């Protein structure tokens, strides 16, 4: 499979947005029915001041765009006020028919090399907590990096672009405000550009709870998670640490998540 990479061009915008829409339509974490807004995010990121144009890249096979990655700059502010710059990407999109073929990994490798040449130190993401460690990401907590609210959790991860790149870098991370300012009203209006599609309804957590033994069920209930998509933000490491969760429970969770096509856990 011959994959090539190039910068996104204006003629690609609709194709990339439609691809992103398809890839993320069924992945939102909220408890209510809502429309996907990730393709709207892509459109807004292209125009924001923190965009890194050299890292707005598409993956192409036989003249067909099958993947896309887009980067912005973020700030890490330490307790003493010291400011460090770091990159963040997202969404990282691979067309549904081409997922599982290593295209996402290759997009990261390609753009990370460019980022290093541009002088950046590292990449921070909010991502799948069991996938991204397989490509070298580490929990941000290991570096003393937290959200802007001072929180940390496994989906918050960083990737040093070279050995020791993030030595001495710690504090609270602040992303571009565009990530926080999307509304459902704007997403609904933006989505009119594309063919109509039925809204995605997340699968309730009850389908998992009813399969678990009492102690494991109680452990999951204490998390107060309402659906399987939100559950997928918990890493297998975190779940295994819960009292009442054993290997048998993990296998049940893995089976249920696979049945409902929600990615979770280590391979």
The CATH architecture of the largest domain can be named as: 3-Layer(aba) Sandwich
Report strand %.
15-25%
Q: State the CATH superfamily name of the largest domain.
A: Gcn5-related N-acetyltransferase (GNAT)
What is the H/E string?
EHHEEEHEEEEEHHHHHH
CATH class of the largest domain: Alpha Beta
Shape: globular
Q: If you compute it from the alpha carbons, what radius of gyration comes out, rounded to the nearest whole angstrom?
A: 19 Å
The helix count comes to: 9
Class by alpha and beta content: alpha+beta
Distance between the termini: 23 Å
Low-confidence stretches: none
Number of DSSP strands? 9
Q: If you consult CATH, what is the topology of the largest domain? A: Aminopeptidase
Count of folded domains = 2
The major β-sheet equals: 9 strands, mixed
What average pLDDT do the residues reach? 95
Helical coverage, percent range: 25-40%
């Amino acid at each position: 499979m011959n994959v090539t990479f190039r910068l996104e061009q204006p003629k690609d915008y609709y194709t990339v947005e439609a691809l992103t829409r398809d890839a993320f339509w069924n992945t939102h974490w909220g408890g209510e029915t809502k429309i996907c807004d990730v393709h709207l995010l892509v459109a807004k990121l292209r125009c924001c001041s923190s965009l890194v144009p050299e890292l707005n890249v598409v993956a192409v096979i036989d003249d067909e765009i099958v993947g896309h990655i887009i980067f912005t700059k973020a700030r890490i502010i330490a307790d003493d006020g010291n400011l460090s710059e770091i990159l963040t990407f997202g969404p990282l999109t691979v067309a549904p028919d081409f997922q599982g073929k290593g295209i996402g990994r290759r997009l990261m490798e390609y753009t990370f090399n460019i980022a290093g040449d541009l002088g950046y130190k590292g990449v921070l993401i909010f991502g799948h907590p069991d996938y991204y460690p397989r490509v070298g990401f580490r929990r941000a907590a290991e570096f003393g990096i937290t959200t802007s609210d001072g929180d940390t959790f496994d989906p918050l991860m960083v990737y040093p672009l070279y050995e020791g790149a993030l030595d001495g870098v710690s504090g609270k991370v602040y992303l571009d405000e565009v990530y926080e300012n999307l509304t459902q009203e704007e997403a609904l209006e933006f989505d009119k550009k594309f063919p109509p599609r039925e809204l995605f309804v997340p699968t309730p957590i009850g389908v998992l709870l009813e399969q678990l033994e009492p102690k494991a069920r109680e452990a999951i209930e204490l998390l107060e998670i309402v659906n399987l998509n939100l559950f997928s933000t918990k890493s297998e490491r975190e779940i295994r640490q819960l009292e009442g969760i054993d290997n048998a429970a993990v296998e049940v969770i893995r089976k249920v998540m696979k049945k409902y096509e929600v990615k979770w856990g280590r391979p």
